[in-house]
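Researcher: Please translate sequence to structure tokens.
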Amino acid sequence: MPRYSCRGAAINHGADRCISFGGWRVDAAVESEVLRVLTPGAIEAALDNAQHTAEHTDEVVRAVTLELEEARYQATRAERQYDAVGPENRLVAETLERRWNEALARVGELDGRLEQLKSQQFRQPVPNRERLLALAQRFPETWSNPATDYL
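Model: Translation complete:
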């Protein structure tokens, strides 16, 4: 029979155990609550949330892609301006070179952010709705099956 016991005081302060009780009622209460919460409605809500998250990530990827295109345009424009200035205008050339370097840094930053977002998309796929709902229907049976692994 499973048993729950508080040993924090004994371990930390050398005091007596504070409480100990059988685990059957606790396990039954936890099982009941898990099965109550993990219904197809909860699964459906989780799936909807996963879909919404994926759509939001797609929108962010599109926005960053557009921002990256604009930054690349600005970097190319800054390069053309730098190339157009004559060597005799050193002060202007320094300013244009600084702007060009800042634009290139922005391109690099956005490119890195876009790659991070794209890799995040592949790590978090949207679960298959039909398969997960079918599994949810069998969950109480699986949960209480004695052959089910506890680990």
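Researcher: Any highlights?
Model: The chain has a mean pLDDT of 85.
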